[in-house]
Every structure is written in structure tokens, then in C-alpha cells.
Specification:
Elements (H helix, E strand, L loop, with lengths): L3 H17 L4 H25 L10 H21 L2 H9 L2 H6 L5 H29 L5 H6 L1 H20 L5 H17 L11 H8 L2 H14 L7 H27 L2
Helix pairs in contact: 1-6, 2-3, 2-6, 3-6, 3-8, 3-11, 6-8, 6-12, 8-11, 8-12, 11-12
């Protein structure tokens, strides 16, 4: 029965999503197509025709697509772990109602992350299908790139949940996306190799979690050498997930249990 408690949280989230899924159609289905059309196909033609010092071994669309797969997982997870968590704690206070049942704080966090894992699986599968349709990868390699993308998103979800649990208002969430998520999206190797950055920025980029997620997804989806050992990236993201889950549980308990 104890193991079923997180499942109850997942079930409740799924029931709510069944009535609100229309609001996520654009981000789930249209954004992948629009990004790949605009950046991969449109800008990609200019990149592929360029004659700079830095050249890619593959077409720009092929290079870009796996990076967008990882970054989509990041942004989806950050979105689900920020404002909805703030709503559960402060605005709607649904978390207090949940904790009035036999469900504990650890069950609540596990169920919350479990639901995000399901969401990420669905979103990344859709993105992998779009990548395949655009010819950026094969069906098998696209599917194999889904688990590391989900792991990347979950690592962010755990840390963002912990961050949100300690906030008193939503101002910190705006700062998170402005100074955290957006710079990671731009400078973690999604749109260009980080070797194009200044030397010290390359070091910083290699320390970011999204760069490790991009390395995993790109290496698997394209069948190219990884930028760093995949075991290092998996350990990095796994440690981030474990640490974020621990902090989320601790901070949620401090915030909600009187």
C-alpha cells in the first residue's frame, strides 16, 4: 500500500491533465515542428551553405534536432516543476489537502516526479517522431535518444521543485527562467558546438547539466562519438536527480508540515 501512494499522486495529476491537455498542445506538438522548420530547415540552409572556419560533419538540421530534444525535456520539466508546484503550495494549497491523507511528503514528491516522467516520455516521443519525419535521425536511434532526454528533464524537475519549494512568491520563478533556463538553452551546445565559445565559457558550458543531456541525445540519435563519456553524463544527471529529490522532500516537509 505504501508503494501505491506515489501512484495515487500520479493518478490525480493524470485526471487533472485529462481536462487541461488542450493547453499544452502547442508546446507539445507545434513547437517541435516550428523550431525545426525555422532553425533547422530555414536557418540550416544558410549554415550549410556557409564557408566559415567551423564546419559541421552533418547537416545543420541533423545537428540541431537532438539538442532540441534535450532542451525540450528541460523546458517542459522546468515548467511543470515551477508554477504548478507554487500553486500546490501557496495558491491552490492542494498539497496541504494531499498531506491530510495517508500520503506523506516523500510520496508527494515521488508522485510529482513520476507524473513529470510520464509527461516527458510523451513529449520526447512526439519530438523523436518529428525528428524522424524530418530525416534528422532513424526511428531506432530516435527512440533510443528518448530515455536520456527524459533523464535530463527529470534532473531539472527535481532541482527546480526544490528551488520552488523554498520560494515565498513567484518572483523567483521569473528569475529562474530569465537567468537560468534561457542561458542554458542558448549556450549548452543546442544550436552550435561549444568550441565556438571563448575558452573559459567552454569550461562553464561543460559543467552545465543540459550540455550533458545534449551530448547523450546527440551521440545516440546521430550515432556519433560522445563529447564526453556517456557514463560521466549519466552519473552527472543521476546525481542531480537524486540530490534534487532529496532536497525537494526536505524543503517540502519544512514548508508544509507544521
Amino acid at each position: 500500500m505504501i508503494l501505491a501512494y506515489p501512484g495515487r499522486v500520479v493518478e490525480a495529476s493524470a485526471r487533472v491533465y485529462r481536462r487541461t491537455w488542450r493547453g499544452s498542445v502547442i508546446s507539445t506538438f507545434l513547437n517541435p515542428v516550428l523550431f525545426l522548420l525555422a532553425m533547422g530547415v530555414g536557418l540550416g540552409k544558410l549554415v550549410d551553405a556557409g564557408t566559415g572556419d567551423a564546419t559541421l560533419d552533418v547537416a545543420y538540421l541533423t545537428f540541431l534536432a537532438p539538442g532540441l530534444l534535450a532542451s525540450t525535456a528541460m523546458t517542459t520539466a522546468a515548467g511543470d516543476a515551477s508554477f504548478p508546484v507554487m500553486a500546490g503550495i501557496k495558491w491552490r494549497k492542494t498539497y496541504e489537502a494531499v498531506l491530510a491523507t495517508p500520503i506523506g511528503v516523500a510520496d508527494l514528491v515521488a508522485g510529482h516526479l513520476g507524473w513529470i516522467a510520464l509527461r516527458l516520455t510523451f513529449v520526447t516521443l512526439v519530438y523523436a517522431a518529428v525528428m524522424t519525419v524530418f530525416g534528422a535521425t532513424t526511428v531506432v536511434e530516435g527512440l533510443l535518444a528518448v530515455p536520456p532526454a527524459v533523464l535530463t528533464g527529470l534532473a531539472f524537475a527535481a532541482v527546480v521543485t526544490a528551488y520552488t519549494a523554498r520560494l515565498k512568491d513567484e518572483q523567483g520563478l521569473a528569475s529562474l527562467f530569465r537567468w537560468g533556463i534561457t542561458p542554458l538553452f542558448l549556450f549548452s551546445g543546442v544550436f552550435f558546438p561549444i568550441t565556438q565559445l571563448w575558452g573559459w565559457l567552454q569550461v562553464v558550458a561543460r559543467l552545465t547539466p543540459l550540455w550533458h543531456g545534449v551530448s547523450l541525445c546527440r551521440g545516440i540519435a546521430l550515432g556519433t562519438p560522445f563529447e564526453v563519456s556517456p557514463w560521466v553524463s549519466l552519473a552527472y544527471l543521476g546525481a542531480m536527480l537524486a540530490g534534487g529529490s532529496y532536497l525537494s522532500t526536505r524543503l517540502m516537509r519544512r514548508r508544509l508540515v507544521k
